[in-house]
Design brief:
Chain A is mostly helical. Chain A has 12 helices and no strands. In chain B, the strands form 2 sheets. A 6-stranded mixed sheet of chain B has the order 5-6-7-3-8-9, with helices on both faces. In chain B, strands 2-1-4 form a 3-stranded antiparallel sheet. Chain B starts with 8 loop residues before the first strand and ends with a helix. The chains are: A mainly alpha (249), B alpha/beta (238). The interface between A and B is medium-sized, with 30 and 34 residues.
């Protein structure tokens, strides 16, 4: 399992998707928006938002392509004939993705501190770490669901955008929803990303409140739900596709 | 006392059925894989060859029938090269070998993995991204990955498909040398000359059923065919 973890951790740095979505874009966004929208208190919101977006775009939007490619290339099927349990393989791949999220998160926190003077407390850092770990697991599971449902690159892309973009837009990652219609506020409470953003915001501000525990409980519940859905929709190979082709003959 | 002339069965599959919708893709197939033999599974596209292999390998569950392995740990001693090339794009050939070893819970040193790549004619390609290798090289890499744990039984699904004549010859020689070394090999192919040259026994599958089975020479004699291609055309006619 360590070989798989190590190989995938190193391999991520060679992947153009990973570089763009989970390394370059978050840092560029933090620096660009941070200087452009130089308002009091916005740097904290922006920092929490960019860390959250990094986790959404990494585990949530790169994982589906990885899952689809590995399945369509027969890797999952091959694993059934191997000694290493598939669950161990998936755990190792998810851990490599989480390690990258944590490393990029640390870079973002350092950038926030150096360029925008965001000061973090120890309890705040602990909350950010806890939230990032839980969020990575949750959005890796979301990524698996998209990858499991997608048949090829275009359908996988469509499904992952359809799942992830509404979550990003109906959260308080980059803007306040105070002025938004009530129904958007209702929707924002019904998906894991909002709770994830709330936890990171509380972490950056260093304040554990009652709502922090509510968001933590909600994120944990969503994580369990997404893991169950990911397990229920998991496919070893493209049997369903093949079945459709044969059924048409 | 077992008769030394009687081949020892490694796998026994009995009355396998696999349905997709209303169609029986595999329809009551029974076959035995013996120790030390090279078994060719042939038949037209969509005849059910790959699905039969999947069922024997327990990669899919049959709707009916049973698959029995002679030894409890045999499953861990099987090497598999699938029709789709299960390589990890973005990773070098050596890293793919490392992952293949990890899949078998083996920790092999890079020198050892390099030697195995060299055995499959890929020494120069070790540091190349596996996705950038030619089709033939990818196929050989998939075979090298299937052999990483020195399997007792090797399944190769169309190992020479889409290869140039030189690469095809190299793969055939590799299969020949594995068989000489005592590895049992089960392979599928559309190359009848290759089948005749390599196989000790042939199982001919058509429309999900076994249409003919036996040693190449015996099959030709039994059906009065000049060669396997003629036999193939006869069995698939109408």
């Amino acid at each position: 399992m360590t070989t798989v973890f190590r190989t995938f951790l190193i391999g991520q740095f060679r992947d153009a998707h990973t570089w763009f979505w989970t390394i370059v874009l978050p840092i560029a966004l933090l620096v660009g928006l941070g200087f452009w929208l130089d308002r009091p208190g916005y740097a904290e919101r922006l920092l929490a938002g960019v860390i959250a977006m990094n986790v959404l775009f990494g585990p949530g939007m790169v994982t589906p392509f990885q899952v689809m490619t590995l399945r369509n290339r027969g890797v999952f099927k091959l694993l059934r004939a191997a000694s290493l349990p598939t669950s161990a393989f998936i755990t190792a791949v998810a851990c490599a993705r989480t390690a990258l999220s944590l490393a990029v998160g640390a870079c973002l926190l350092a950038t926030g501190g150096l360029l925008f003077g965001v000061r973090l407390t120890l309890p705040g850092l602990a909350l950010i770490l806890l939230a990032t770990l839980a969020g990575s697991v949750c959005f890796t599971a979301v990524g698996f669901i998209s990858g499991n449902l997608g048949r090829n690159e275009s359908s996988t892309s469509m499904i992952s955008n359809l799942i992830c973009m509404p979550m990003l837009l109906t959260s308080e990652a980059f803007w306040s929803l105070e002025q938004a219609p009530q129904w958007i506020n209702v929707i924002s409470r019904l998906h894991p990303f909002s709770h994830f953003v709330n936890l990171l915001s509380d972490g950056v501000r260093g304040s554990w409140q009652t709502s922090t525990w509510t968001s933590l409980g909600a994120l944990a519940a969503f994580t369990l739900l997404c893991l169950s859905l990911a397990a229920a929709t998991f496919r070893w190979d493209d049997e369903r596709v093949r079945f459709r082709i044969l059924a048409n003959h | 006392m077992p008769n030394p002339a009687t081949p020892r069965a490694l796998i026994r599959a009995a009355s396998l059925v696999k349905r997709y919708g209303r169609r029986n893709v595999v329809d009551r197939i029974s076959l035995v894989v013996n120790a030390g033999e090279v078994l060719a599974v042939i038949g037209p596209n969509g005849a059910g060859k790959s699905t039969t292999l999947d069922l024997i390998l327990r990669l899919r569950d049959p709707d009916e029938g049973t698959v029995e392995y002679a030894e409890p740990d045999l499953r861990r001693r099987i090497g598999v090269q699938l029709q789709t090339t299960p390589i990890f794009p973005g990773y070098t050939a050596l890293e793919n070998m490392r992952l293949a070893a990890a899949f078998q819970r083996l920790r092999l040193k890079d020198d050892e993995l390099m030697r195995r790549l060299a055995d499959c004619g890929l020494a120069d390609a070790a540091k190349t991204d596996a996705a950038r290798l030619s089709g033939g090289q990818q196929k050989r890499l998939a075979i090298a990955m299937a052999l990483v744990h020195d399997p007792k039984l090797l399944f190769l699904d169309e190992p020479t498909a889409a290869l140039d004549p030189r690469a095809r010859r190299e793969v055939r020689e590799l299969i020949g040398s594995l068989a000489k070394g005592g590895t049992s090999v089960v392979f599928t192919s559309h190359e009848m000359e290759e089948v005749h040259r390599l196989a000790d026994r042939i199982v001919f599958i058509s429309e999900g059923r076994i249409a003919a089975e036996g040693a190449p020479a015996a099959l030709l004699e039994q059906h009065g065919a000049a060669d396997l291609e003629q036999l193939y055309l006869r069995l698939t006619a109408g």
